[in-house]
Protein: Ribosome-recycling factor
Organism: Polaromonas eurypsychrophila
Amino acid sequence: MSITDIKSSTEQKMQQSLESFKQSLTKIRTGRANPGLLDTVQVDYYGAMVPISQVANVSLLDARTISVSPWEKGMGAKIEKAIRDSDLGLNPATQGDLIRVPMPAMTEERRKELTKIVRGEGEHAKVAIRNLRRDANDGVKKLVKEKLASEDDERRAHDEVQKSTDRFIADVDKLVAGKEQDIMAV
């Protein structure tokens, strides 16, 4: 494995960590409705657990209401139960074939609690990125020890890995700040 392989591999893994962090942020609900909020909810579809998006059309009715339109008549009750049983704290209401999922207004206390959760998730993402930096630097040191790279190459590689790390950590900070702003908006 060469230094360029180590750098590109580290860059890919850091990108994956960032994507994973973005995914975990979508699960944290803000005051506004977002169809992506229901992506993690699984429904029993003839014995198999599948995401709601595979058995129904999920869209927005307005800023505070998600609508779920099942594709099959008998799925309405199962979808409603799955949403109610999820850990999202939502209370769906069925109107004919349409399931309305209103977003409850959040209290100030709940908003502050959610910002702490977002910051914690952000810290986990940063730790993962820093661990990748450490692994990359260890890999480069091993190459130098085995005389496959010079110390100048090592220094350059450390600097480039640090720049990547700084860039990804700045991205995480931006995402955290944006999510906090969403949560605190009334």
About this structure: Residues 3-27+107-184 form a domain with the Topoisomerase I; Chain A, domain 4 fold (CATH 1.10.132.20).
